Records
---
Amino acid sequence: MTDGVARKTGRWALLSPRTRKNLSVAGVVLTLILAWELYKLIWSSLGWIRPVRPDDVVMPHVWDMVIELFRPVRRGGNLLILDLLVRSLWTLREAVAGFVVGGLIGFGLGVLFVRSRLAERAFMPYVVASQTVPILAIAPMVVVWGGAIGLPQWMAVAVIAAYLTFFPVAINTLRGLRSPDPNSLELMRSYAADPSAVLWKLQVPSALPYIFTALKVSATAAIVGALIGELPAGFQNGLGRALLTFSQQFAVQSKKLYATVIICAAVGIFFVGMVTLAERKFVPHRETLEPEGEMLARASAGG
């Protein structure tokens, strides 16, 4: 038995890291689907209704949710999946715009705080406090203010996405910019490197892993912000409107709501995947980095 386990472990180790990761994700998804269907089967056979009633309205079969995607939204209309994919492009546009703006603001705040302890002490409490205000309370105000100054609806929604994006980026940027070894900073200063060179050639490269970790969190937050922002904005073209419409029809069309949730999750996964691809491009593996001393000498010399 031990030999069999060792052989299986050896086969798993022979797989590439990406293959192992994909198989792990597929395993988690299949486990969740199996748990959903087993709950429905067991609770239905025993007549249990708590904690969740296992009928086809509250808990439809997973395959029914998927099949619903390939049925018309309404009689004579487009397939639900086509309608949701078009809506996802609108929501993704709002999320990406907010993600970029919020990321830049967060990075700027991180740089400001690492440069000035006074600014950090003065503004950090307000940055933290901003995240304690419920987004549902802020979204209507942003929409109203945006309309008052002539801001297009989708840009007002992007502002809400930016609001949820900037905080993790600011905190992780600050932590990352402070992550270089003090000896490395001293070496840069011994080469008479100016603060700008220290920032861009030592601190920012060291902070990239922290920043991209925050960006992956912020990518999902931007999608959530866009979905929430579409509701008070009365935006008709996004996924948020579809969620609201189908939630009002839950008693008779619950499968449409579940199918929409699946598409929302897929959009979030796609967005995080794009950020992960950028991370692989801009954050080199440890083993491919230059020796620290040589890298710093080249950087301080402008090479």
---
Amino acid sequence: MSHTQIKPLLNEVLHHLQTDPHRRTSGLSDFILGAQDGLVNVLGVILGIAAATNDARIVLVAGLATTFAESISMGAVAFTTTLADADHYQSELEREYRHIQEAPNLETQEIREIYESKGFKGKLLEHIVETVTANQDVWVAVMMAEEHQLAPIDRKQAIRAAFVVGTSAVLGSLVPLLPFMFLPVATSMWASVLVTALVLFGIGAYKARVTVGKPMRSGMEMAAIGTVSALAGYLVGVILKVPAVP
């Protein structure tokens, strides 16, 4: 291969791997789930506690308790949910193997319809159907991906999801707590809302940059939704405010 042929190929490889690489969305969605949940839930709790008591120590205790309880709970939910998806995949996989044994003609017709819908016709379509159905493992894999829209999941993915969700929940939860460690309660409440809104905006904008959408719009939406949700905690605190001790 000549130098003139190598250079365009190298440019394509660099574009494919560095400039515009494919990205794994599962880790991103797990991170966003944990971070957003931690940010919004803890902000709502500490705003309610701060409005009700005006005591920084109580706010920090309540916030930290919520932080670790929330992160463990979110991680456990991510783990069990991913395992449930894995179990669902396995049950459908076994069912497909039974179907191609007990109803091969029907399953063959489903393969034909799948590729016919993609535009294949005539001899080419029949050749594809024969090739796919000649191997049971390939046959079942096609049915799982094309008919059921399911992908295999293993236990390592469940552990990874639990770790990412739990860790991001802790990190997100600590953000609204930071102002209460250094500032008076009244000032901390406003600072906490502002910092949390900025972080939520950053998460939303980043999500749009690595997937699709407009970063500014995505960031504003996430910041608005999260902040309004958290302010519900503040309203509860105001309504149930603890009376000052004379």
---
Amino acid sequence: MKKAVIFDLDGTLSDSINSIKYCGDRALAPFGIGPFETKQYCYFVGDGAANLVKRALIAGGDEELVHFEEAFSLYKEIFRDNCMYQVKPYDGIRELLAKLKEAGVKIAVLSNKPHVETIRVIETLFGKEYFDVIQGQKEGVAIKPSPEGAFQVLEQLSLSPEEILYLGDTATDMKTGKGAGAFTVGALWGFRERRELEESHADAIIGHPLELLEYL
């Protein structure tokens, strides 16, 4: 039996796309860019806030990223105040977490969302000290798909890669999990399609959170 599950946050634990779109559209508006459709934001996200802003700017015609510094600064400012805008757990997530805790399986979060906001989202949705480890984007730690953050989580849990499952909804997550040597599970309820998860060689793909229990 696996001893821990490392979860991605956005698109896996939390349905946060409305928050990301709200902040992105507001940050880009002063430059005459956007608004974008929700589906577009599903593909802007996944590799950190800086890359999100860059992708949105390029999609809006700023291919040289002339407005990046200003837009990124504004996005971070807006996001600090609105990271919980219409954010909620996906159906079945609370039940899955409860069953994992009942079984003595540790739970951790690894996100490319800034660390402070990652903690805020998790503690608002699930309470303080509910997760064993919470790790967002930190200065000096490479963002996913680098496995560096995953190895730090493993160290805090005192576990080896063979003892964990890694659950996420994007190619970035599958690359992160595989880079860390974990069994990777793709979540179909998130931001991306089955094809992306298959092409990223997910070890398993599930359509509902409780299906994860089959792979423990």
---
Amino acid sequence: MNFVPRMNNRIGGYTVERYFHRRYWNGMAADLWDVTCAPGAGGFYSARDPRLFVALAADGGGDARFEMREVGGRMSARSVAPFISFIPAGMDLEAYSHGIRSVRHLDLHFDAETLERRFGEDVAPSVFEQPRLMLSEPDLFSLAELLAGECLTEEPLHDLYGDGLALALLIAVMKLPAPERRMRGKLAQWQLRRVTDFIEDNCLRTIRLDELATIAGLSACYFSHAFKATTGLPPHQWQMRARIRRVKERLAESRQPLAEIAAEMGFSDAAHLTRMFRRHVGSPPSVWRRDRAE
């Protein structure tokens, strides 16, 4: 069964001129769009899956530009086409065009679980929690254009071609390093118990990997991979799950504002808490709290 992106958009001012059929690869879906833009076209975008947005070309005047900003957060960017943005799962985004008459853009959506499984231990999942807005590095666009061409053609090549292009573009955007050789092995039960108890007790602060490795009596490199081999999760995700449980408790027992809860629970701001909560729970904290109150 093909992966189907999950998005919730509230936008206006765009008219689709041409839509090429969606291409599916392993845990990925890509769309190529040609749209015309009314003045101030744009709106709100939200997705439960990470994605790349590639503005391939745009027609506009000398002061034409695009603008993206995280809803409730501090991150914002402006740029002319072409550019590429990586938007993490659960990141609510506002995007607008100014002085743009038409644009061709590529949307590439990823299933987070498939992505994590494919990269395995070679890439920390936290890498895909970091947004990268409006990158304008020329080397990226040769891959993006090849991928757009594969979406456009009526006779696509073998699935491995599109799959490889999509992964190559993601790796280039995220600047993922080459994997190193990994040592295999699992933690003993006493090691796992001590480490998980420590994480539970200290989940609201930053926990250094070498702290956990010392508790287990291992090197940081060996510990990191032994922990995932034992639990199926890297240490930082285990900690995030513990932190989300604390957030749930606070949401259920108080009417404390989300920004205050975020500060107490070790999140940078309410937007960061909302993004992580949605990723782990499936709904934003405000909705989860409301459903428990009913």
